[in-house]
Amino acid sequence: MTTPAGGIARNSGGGATPARVAIVGSGAWGTTLAVLVARSEPVTLLCHSEATAATIRDGRRNERRLPGVDLPAAIIATTDAAALATAELVIVAVPSAHLRETVAGLRPSIPPGADVLSVVKGLEAGSLLRMTEVIADAAGVAPDRIAALSGPNLAQEIARGLPASAVVASSNPELAERIAERLARREFRLYTNADVLGVELCGALKNVIAIAAGAADGLGFGDNGKAGLLTRGLAEMMRVGIAAGANPLTFAGLAGIGDLIATCGSGLSRNHRLGEELAKGRPWSEIEASLAGVAEGAYTVDAALALAGRLGVEMPIAREVHNALFEGKSVQRCLIDLLARESKDELADFQDWVERLGAST
Asked: Which residues pair with 118 in a beta bridge?
C-alpha cells in the first residue's frame, strides 16, 4: 500500500482506499493513535508542519515525538485539511493551549456527520472550559457528537504494542460504543462511561498531581511519602469533581486513579519529568524549552485553581505546584509546607460531598 500526500491510500491492486479515520495532531499521542488505527485500516494524520508530514511520508518515522517506532504505510501524513473530507471519525490530539485555534481553523473541513473524539487533557485558560466544550464551541460541533478518551495511556508503550486500557466518555451511549468498537484492540481495551465531566476533569487534574509526584521522586521522598502525596492528590481531584457535579466513582476508574498511577509513576510521563527537573532547581522557562513535548499540567494548574476557587474547594498540592512553576518557590519549600499543614480527619469532607451529591440528584 502506498501513501500519497492526500487522504487516499492505494492498495496493492492500484485501487483507492479512502481513510475513514483522521487524526488532528502529530505529537506522541496523535502519532501513536495513528499507529493503532493503521493496523486495521488507513488513517489520515493531519500534521501542523509540512516538514513533519514529509518526514513521516518519506522515512516512516516521527523521531522527535515518538522515537524508535516504525510507522505503518497505512498512515497518510498531510497538512491538507481537505483530507478530512472522507472521515467518519475525527480524533483531535493537539496541545490544550492550541486546541481552540486549531479546531476553529478546521471548522469548514470537519464532515457534518463525522464523530469527533477528543484525546486532549486540560482546561482552557480563562474560560475554564473542558476540551470537548472547546471543540463544541470553536468547531460548531454538537456536544452529542463529541466523546472524550482518557486513561493510563503512555504513548511509547501503546506504540510498542504493550497492553493498555482506556475509557471513552460521551453523553451519547451509541457514539461511545461506536468509537470504542472502532478503536479497541486486544492490546488496547476500551470501556465506556457517560460521565464526560468526570473523565475530562480526571485527565486534566492528574497532570498537575504528576508534577508534584515527580518533584517528590526528585527529592527522594520515598515510596511512603509518594503514596501519601498521590492519595491526597486524588482527594483534591475528587473534591473538584464532586463540586462540579461529576460521578465520584469515575475517579476510582481508569481515567482517575488508573491514569494517576501511570502518570505519577512513569519516567515516560512528561509531567513527572517536569517535577523531577524542578526538584533540581531548574526554572520552568528553561525546562519548557527542553521537553520533547508538552507537559500539560503546567498549562492546566492555574485553570484548575481558578475552577476550584469558583467551586469553593481547596487544592493545596496544586497551589504548591503553581508556586514552584511560576512564583520561584523552591520545590523543597513547597513540599515542606505541604507536610506542615495541620492534620485533620481524613474524611472531614465526606459529609460535604454527600450533601453536594444529594443536591445534584
From this structure: 92, 148
